[in-house]
Amino acid sequence: KTFPAWRVDSPQVTPTRRHNSRSTSLIQNGSINVVFCKGPSRLSTRSHTCGELCSRHIGEEVTLCGWVQYLRQDLFVILRDFSGLVQVLVPHDESKHELRNTFCGLSVESVLMVKGRVKRRPEGQENKNMPTGEIEVCAESVEVLNTCRTLPFEIKDFVKKSEAMRMQYRYLDLRSPQMQANLRLRSRLVMKMREYLCYQHGFVDVETPTLFKTNSWGIEFLVPSREAGKFYCLPQSPQQFKQLLMVAGLDRYFQLARCYRDEGSKPDRQPEFTQVDIEMSFVEQGGIRALVEGLLQYSWPEEKGFVTTPFPCVTYEQAMQDYGVDKPDTRFGMKLTDVTEIFQDTRIGWMRDAVTQSHGCVQAIRVPEGSKHLKGKDMESLKNTAQTQFTQPLPLTSCCLASLLQRPLLGKLRLQCAELLEGHGVRVRDPAVFHFLWVVDFPLFLPKEDAPGQLESAHHPFTAPVPQDVPLLYSEPHKVRGQHYDLVLNGCEVGGGSIRIHNSAQQRYILQNVLKEDVVLLTHLLEALECGAPPHGGIALGLDRLVSIIVGSPSIRDVIAFPKSFRGHDLMSNAPDFVVEEELKPYCISVVWPSVEGADRSPAPPPED
């Protein structure tokens, strides 16, 4: 490809042509035209990457740059870069003793530039487990670009490292082949998504603000301003902005949005995360779902198989009835079955055992201590129920599963059964299989946990009600279904969206009369909806979670370059950190340290992570 010429502030020079095996440059009349071949080595001091060399390169002179992976006495060096490994043969000629001494004095993870010639390995010395195992590079010169001190751990995937160690030395952890592969797969996925949305469907990539106004229903990070008592917040999502862009007539918007939630980290969640944010005007649920199915089918990594569309779809009610959760893992059966009628007139002593259906037969399974899926209040509820209800034989009508244990508990027990079976060698969930599922018709409102007599949004307050249920909004709002849809992959929610309310009066009624919210906080949005807002809807895909499932990682931290710890800390830079009082004065902020009654009340920093 010929790139446009760019000017060089220098006198006129004689036309000169420079060659190597990968590029050609022409300097003429103060301008430079560069002709490069495709590949990751163009514009680089290397001619090839380590992992691309093979038998077709035999006889070529190459320049390689990378890190020392192994040192095998004075015989050879294994050189590594992002693309893979290659064996560099150390010369034994007496005339090249300085070159040999340089190689022998290297430390692991030193950075080198090696020039040499590719040759075939001697017969019987090929390494079939190595992509470059047919060849080796005979070194003719070496330049040590940097040396390396003794590292806290080896850069090898099989070396066990604690999570804290990986976070503290993240720049070293990212050198591992697995982390490199994860980040590069993520990059390719994102590029394909951009192509699909922009070039095939006319979406516009728009960046929305990170500093925004606080609201009353979110879990937000606050950011102080220089106006006393006034704060920004870091938004949980660009929800309001993307709706305002639809009011503005942009028609189709997307962005890779950075989002923030001030809550504890989990394997599939952390304080800051990335979502593929999408919004469309003049669209219904079917249009959004078809767009997302096409997006995933187009961008899906080829090595992970083929995505079949359309995705299955179930209602929220059906998902809870069959699986006990609103994000069911459909890679295996074991659906919940109500057996009340079968045992209507029998008396059964269950004795602290929970009942579930496995492979078509009902069997008793004891809930183990420390269950992964049944923890905290769920485990306590199950134990209390077992102790109080199952100590004596009772009619099943007195302890019906649906009302006694509740289906969410049985849904978690179903997952525990799958883990128990897998722990005994029974293959229940294939990690190489990807099952997508749409869940629709969620309740628009749910009772508040701390105030059951009040309602809160099941999704967010901007979700539109199902048209048939609009009359119930003014009489029985708890029965209203919302136009909300979730995308589930292998039992994990990877996306969620809805058709939005585009009528200002309806939006105001829900905020003021149903949710009892202060509408002043959303004056800007309500005013915008009065200015000819089109019908619109959208979705947000959790990019971190989606990629972690694709690569088979149990934690999203394995697909994020610089993640936070479980406590939300950056162990590499020790953030968050203390600031001196002088830096707080412009924000009119002072820190009041928590103290224990009877203890020293003098200011003291909290304990380290």
TrEMBL record:
The keyword ATP-binding applies. The keyword Transport does not apply. InterPro entries: Aa-tRNA-synt_II, aa-tRNA-synth_II, aa-tRNA-synth_II/BPL/LPL, Asp-tRNA-ligase_1, Asp-tRNA-ligase_1_N, Asp/Asn-tRNA-synth_IIb, GAD-like_sf, NA-bd_OB-fold. GO terms for molecular function: aspartate-tRNA ligase activity; ATP binding; nucleic acid binding. Transmembrane segments: none annotated. One of its GO terms (biological process) is aspartyl-tRNA aminoacylation. One of its GO terms (cellular component) is mitochondrion. It holds the Pfam family tRNA-synt_2. Keywords: Aminoacyl-tRNA synthetase, ATP-binding, Ligase, Nucleotide-binding, Protein biosynthesis. SUPFAM superfamilies: Class II aaRS and biotin synthetases, GAD domain-like, Nucleic acid-binding proteins. Residues 183-563 form the Aminoacyl-transfer RNA synthetases class-II family profile domain. PROSITE patterns: AA_TRNA_LIGASE_II. Belongs to the class-II aminoacyl-tRNA synthetase family. Type 1 subfamily. This is Aminoacyl-transfer RNA synthetases class-II family profile domain-containing protein.
